[in-house]
From TrEMBL:
Pfam families named in the record: DUF2798 (PF11391)
UniProt keyword annotations, A-Z: Membrane, Transmembrane, Transmembrane helix
Membrane spanning stretches: 9-30, 36-58, 79-101, 121-141
UniProt protein name: Integral membrane protein
Domain of life where this protein originates: Bacteria
Record lineage: Bacteria, Bacillati, Bacillota, Bacilli, Lactobacillales
InterPro entries reported in the protein's UniProt record: DUF2798
Length: 155
């Protein structure tokens, strides 16, 4: 887990990017619209929206909820699972809304489309985050920490 502000920004960026590209590919495949042009065409706006939701809306409440859960906070893995799960729930809540809005707009069927998208996204996002993206990004963070390029300086 990040130990300073620089590491926090780096970690948030790589997790957010990894989840956006993965979930975008998943949703395009679900709707039979996958192509590299569709994937990369929506990547920058999707990443910007996800990063804003992550930093400004989801992160703080998700961490507060995770730390209030009855998990052994001395066991790092339990804390990681709690925080990651709460983050995924919050991000799927908002990003499913964003995805439905971008694909269909606010129609009379918005709520039905949203509930369907939320369920399908949660099924994919939670294991993706817990089993692949989270561990991979923590490994990248650890490697970057060893190279000292994320070290806080007084510059």
């Amino acid at each position: 887990m990040p130990q300073n502000k620089k590491e926090g920004i780096f970690f948030t960026t790589i997790v957010c990017f990894s989840m956006v590209i993965s979930m975008s590919a998943y949703n395009l495949l679900l709707h039979g619209q996958f192509s590299l042009s569709n994937l990369f065409g929506g990547l920058v706006p999707g990443f910007i929206v996800a990063f804003i939701f992550d930093v400004l809306v989801v992160s703080s409440p998700a961490k507060k909820i995770a730390f209030s859960l009855p998990v052994n906070k001395e066991k790092k893995i339990q804390l990681i699972i709690a925080v990651s799960s709460c983050m995924v729930l919050g991000m799927v809540f908002f990003m499913s809304m964003y995805g439905v809005f971008m694909q269909f707009g606010f129609t009379e069927n918005f709520l039905r489309y949203y509930v369907d998208a939320f369920a399908k996204n949660l099924i994919m996002a939670l294991p993706l985050q817990l089993l692949l993206v989270g561990p991979l990004c923590r490994m990248i963070l650890s490697m970057s920490r060893q190279s000292n390029w994320l070290k806080e300086t007084n510059d």
